[in-house]
Amino acid sequence: MVFNNAGVMREGRFETLTDDDFRAVMQTNFFGAVNVTRAALPHLGATGGRLINIASVAGLAGIFGFTAYGSAKHALVGFTECLHYELPRQGIKVHLVCPAEFETPMVAELDSYRTPENRRHTLAIPRTPLDIVVADTLRGIQRDRYFIVPGGRARLAVLGLRLFPSIARQLGARIVAKLEWKRPA
């Protein structure tokens, strides 16, 4: 098994994020998975292995302040979707895991500087406890599920995003609009 779970985050309004911020996030969150997958492919094919890519709910929907992070996770979702069709011929099973936010050192750092809009928008789905993320991910892999969303609340939110995208966007816009914010100068 190969778990592609490396990640970095840059949060902020688009106009405050630099090209270097975008490159750093894409390099780790997307190209890191591409590079590890490429290196592991011969071994996974020889052993009938599994590739598990850890993306995010932010890879399924836009989130205020996550233009860099969300873009990289969207790319990882697309990459994984393509591999889902390509790799079974080599005997490799592919899994996509999209957790909502959960407690990690990366999230603790994010909490020290995140925008109020991002906090409110992201936490519309309450944080999933780490033990549930791990248990639901392992259970999904054992059951050969391609698409795994750990946590009941997160699964319900993702179902709503997928079945009712226009309504989900309207709700997201309302959540963000409740905070009065001014554009940076």
TrEMBL record:
Tell me, what is one Gene Ontology molecular-function annotation carried by this entry? oxidoreductase activity
Superkingdom of origin: Bacteria
Coiled coil ranges = none
Q: Which SUPFAM superfamilies match?
A: NAD(P)-binding Rossmann-fold domains
Gene3D superfamilies in the record, alphabetically? NAD(P)-binding Rossmann-like Domain (3.40.50.720)
Q: Name one Pfam family in it.
A: adh_short
Instruction: Supply the alphabetized keyword list.
Output: NADP, Oxidoreductase
State the family it belongs to.
Belongs to the short-chain dehydrogenases/reductases (SDR) family.
Name this polypeptide is given = Short-chain dehydrogenase/reductase SDR
Please report the organism this UniProt entry assigns to the protein: Bradyrhizobium oligotrophicum S58
